[in-house]
Design goal:
By secondary structure, the protein is α+β, with helices and mostly antiparallel strands. 17% of the residues lie in helices and 32% in strands. The longest helix is centred in the first third of the chain and has 10 residues. The termini are far apart.
């Protein structure tokens, strides 16, 4: 249960409650749930979405969530929470830990840890990381925060590739599924638009550490793009990387920035490179 209090300013006086809530970041779907669930009040009285609000009034929003009935709680999962408030929690996910449950991983995922910590709240991962990718994973703790975080979160990835790349650049190549595979992707003209920006951060042992930002969010985008231009990620067995020095793709979400959904505060978090990636360039 999450309670939010809003004071109506002079600039919002005369607006309907619906318009007021929309202006403060509530989706139409969330407003509908509040309307039918009785979670919207003013001065202790039920507030209809068609009612007009007045300057100085306090609007109380009470959001109830269903729990994680389908996800088995597992408090023993190893993933540190590096930031938490009433609306957001950010985990530093180690490699080899899936984010969401699947047939093969029903009890050993980040979602299972979340279910143990917050049994009354659905798991909402804002940025999903592949099982073997490490780093920061932002999760919304309520249905108001989720769409706000999706709009505001930005991520910086670090990857080590085979070969030497100098300077900075952009890869703008469409990505599509490979044949009938539901996992493997490739660059193909009829694929979805995909744009990756990168900057070389260090060189060592014939490898390059890259700082990467994504303008789009396609499956395996970083891995596919760099493999296509001849610089596969170290350890990336699927896309042709050298697996002799690391047993997973050398990819890490090392920085996230987002706006706190309620306070508007800008939050920036960093996660250091894991030891297995750091060894590749030391």
């Amino acid at each position: 249960m999450r309670e939010l209090l809003f004071t109506v300013g002079a600039e919002d006086a005369g607006e309907t409650a619906f318009a007021f809530l929309r202006k403060h970041g509530f989706s139409q779907r969330n407003i509908t749930k509040l309307k039918h669930g009785g979670g919207l009040t003013r001065g202790g009285e039920l507030l209809r979405t068609v009612d007009k609000v007045n300057a100085g009034e306090e609007i109380r929003v009470l959001m109830a969530d269903s729990g994680n009935e389908s996800i088995l709680p597992n408090p023993d999962i190893n993933a540190a929470a590096v930031y938490e408030d009433d609306d957001v929690i950010v985990f530093d996910k180690p490699p080899f830990l899936p984010v969401h449950p699947s047939i093969r991983h029903s009890t050993d995922t980040l979602a299972n840890l979340y279910a143990a910590k917050f049994p009354d709240t659905p798991f909402r991962a804002v940025n999903r990381l592949d099982r073997n990718t490490s780093g920061l994973c932002v999760c919304a703790k309520n249905r108001f925060a989720a769409p706000q975080l999706i709009k505001s979160v930005s991520k910086v990835y670090y990857a080590v590739v085979d070969g030497v790349i100098e300077g900075a650049g952009e890869i703008n190549l469409p990505i599509a599924r490979t044949g009938e595979s539901i996992i493997v992707r490739m660059v193909r003209e009829d694929g979805q638009s995909a744009v990756t920006r990168y900057k070389a951060a260090a060189h060592k042992n014939g490898r390059t550490l890259l700082e990467i930002t994504l303008l789009t969010g396609r499956t395996h985008q970083i891995r596919v793009h760099f493999s296509h231009i001849g610089y596969p990620l170290c350890g990336d067995e699927i896309y042709g990387g050298d697996c002799s020095a690391i047993n997973r793709q050398a990819l890490h979400c090392g920085r996230v920035t987002f706006v706190q959904p309620v306070t508007g505060e800008r939050v920036e978090l960093e996660s250091p490179l894991p030891e297995d990636i750091r060894r590749l360039i030391e």
